[in-house]
Amino acid sequence: MLSYELASSIVAAAHREAQARGWKVAVAVVDADGYLTASGRMDSTFALASQIAEAKACGTAVWHEDGGQLATLNAERPGFFQAVSSLARLPLVPAAGSALIRRDGDVLGAAGASGAGSENDQALIEVAIATALSGP
User: Fold this and answer.
1) Whole-prediction pTM
2) What CATH number should be reported for the domain holding residue 52?
């Protein structure tokens, strides 16, 4: 189960890393069912970044694929992807910038980031998850 403590530590780790790199981002962490557990938007991050981060995380949680893999799926089977996206509680964003949160092989949830460009968002969220999982 994804705890609020772990979810919040992922958000905090992502914000520390983004600040160190001079990026402004929003981060969202969802549970394994795609429901929001924690989120945060850095000052001066563009207005829709929070919703995009959550939509990236939600897609990753329900598909068990990171955002880059979802982008590939959307490109290969757009009709199917859009049909599934319409069943989710919010539109899914098929772009890099999200990753699964796993512990001992179990999927706890997913995290997404938006604001630094998809590839940077992906690197950021992977570092944040690893940092939070290795913490005390």
Assistant:
1) 0.95
2) 3.30.450.150
